[in-house]
Amino acid sequence: MTNARTRAGNVVPRVVRSVRGWTPHRPRLAGAAMGLGAAVVLVGCGLANAVMGHGRLPVQVSLVVVSAAVVLGLPVIVAPPEKRMLAMVLCLVVLVIAMPAGFRDAVLSVRGERTPATVTEITRSPRPRTGGDQYECTIRLPDGRETFVDGKEVCTASTRVGDRIRVYTDPYDLVATKAKAPAVTFPVLGTVVGAATLLLVVVTSQTMGRKRRAPE
C-alpha cells in the first residue's frame, strides 16, 4: 500500500517534468497559441461570472477552479525565466480580475439606470480581515425583482428594513445591481484586456521560442 501511494504521489512531478521538457515543432507559434488560449479561457470565465455568477455559489466555485488551473498551470508548462514569469503572472492576474470586475461597470455605464429600491432584509456579518461588521441588504426593485447589494454607500448600520435607497440597475437584467456609480467603460475594459492578452501572447511565444528542439 505504501509503495502504491508513493508511486501515485510521484505521478504529478513526472507529468510536470515531461510537460516542461516538451518542445513543439513550431515553439513560437505554440507559445502564442497557449497564451491566447489562456487569455480566452480567463476572459470567458470572467464574463460568465459577471453574467451568471451573482449569488450562485456553485457557478462561482467552478469558474474559480478553472481560472486557478489556468493561472497555475500556464507558468508550469511554459516555465519562463524570472522576469518573464513576473510579466506572465501579472497578465494572468489582470485578466482574472478585470473581466468580472469591469464588465458589470461597462454595461451599467452604457444602459444602467439609477433606480429607487426598497430594503427588505439586512444581513450583518463580521469582516474577517479588518474587523468590525459588514452589511448586505436585500432590496426589491420597482419591477418586483429582488436582489442584494452591499457597501457603505447604501447599506450600513443605520439602514433599516423599509428604507428607500437608490442603486444602479440594468433594465435587461444582464448584470447584477450595483450601489456605486459605474467607473469602468467598455473602451477602458477593452484596452486593459487587450493589452494584457497581447503581452501574455508575446511572453509565452518568446519563452517557447527559446526552447531548443530535442534532437531526433
Question: What would you note in describing this structure?
Answer:
With 216 residues, this protein is of the alpha+beta class. The chain is built from six helices and four strands. It has helices spanning 2-9, 11-20, 27-52, 57-78, 82-111, 186-209; strands at residues 113-126, 133-140, 146-150, 164-169. The protein has a four-stranded antiparallel beta sheet with strand order 3-2-1-4, with no helix packed on it. A hairpin with a 6-residue loop joins strand 1 (113-126) and strand 2. The mean pLDDT is 84.
Protein traits:
single chain, 216 residues, alpha+beta, 4 strands, elongated
Q: How much beta, percentage-wise?
A: 15-25%
Distance between the termini: 39 Å
Mean pLDDT: 84
Number of strands: 4
- Helix/strand class: alpha+beta
How much helicity do the residues have? 55-70%
User: What Rg is obtained from the alpha carbons, in whole angstroms?
Assistant: 23 Å
Overall shape: elongated
Low-confidence stretches: none
H/I helix tally: 6
| Secondary-structure element order, N to C | HHHHHEEEEH
Summarize the main sheet.
4 strands, antiparallel
Strands ordered across the widest β-sheet = 3-2-1-4
